[in-house]
Amino acid sequence: xxxxxxxxxxxxxxxxxxxxxxxxxxxxxxxxxxxxxxxxxxxxxxxxxxxxxxxxxxxxxxxxxxxxxxxxxxxxxxxxxxxxxxxxxxxxxxxxxxxxxxxxxxxxxxxxxxxxxxxxxxxxxxxxxxxxxxxxxxxxxxxxxxxxxxxxxxxxxxxxxxxxxxxxxxxxxxxxxxxxxxxxxxxxxxxxxxxxxxxxxxxxxxxxxxxxxxxxxxxxxxxxxxxxxxxxxxxxxxxxxxxxxxxxxxxxxxxxxxxxxxxxxxxxxxxxxxxxxxxxxxxxxxxxxxxxxxxxxxxxxxxxxxxxxxxxxxxxxxx
Length: 319
Prior knowledge:
This protein is α/β, with parallel strands linked by helices.
């Protein structure tokens, strides 16, 4: 089978498609013939050598796919710790779920990483409750757009940020009641002006250092900040007195490094609580672009340059 190998040369990504043996599923795994794979910032970090796969997982890039089970032909999606950017992948059975009815299989590749990340961090870690107020940073990313939709479906009021005025409409289109361009406005001041002081119950923050002080400022007493990445840096200055006064919690979270058993439990809940929203239209994958595998290098460049709104997908086949 072919798989995707990507390296960085002189500031640009260069992709190749070497051949290797088709994977043989181990016990508890299923073999998927890949239709499409999703591109994520974790791929960029792995290419740069900063985010290796967990021990025992595939060294091949790619954390999510759609495709068909080789054994039965069933259309499925899968969350992976690696191996997705390839023609075939052996996936843990507990991390595989049937692709939603009515959704084309290429688009379905945009579900696993984005929507499961949003689900685990908002619902499982963040304890999101109905009629809460949520702040989603990097709202135009795949995870951000998924988080806005899951929050709205849970009955929440949502503020979302982006660094580009061109992306504000995308945030509003999926349900953000307040969309903020942080290149022009301070998000904490904007939220306080529109919704009052200490208005936010849950913050989903992949930005890190630069946004954390403002996150604490807008939190209600007992609020939660879930940090899932550090795009602006990993070392932050905090007002600990304010953190204590608000009895706030800062939760660090990753999905890739969790055990297969823990991921299977999360996926099981996801299938019951979130997946039914796709056939009804309550949830949708916002696709930025679909590239054929021959142009895969462009997908990583597009993501690094922050030009995408939603998911970038690589199509491995059209059937």
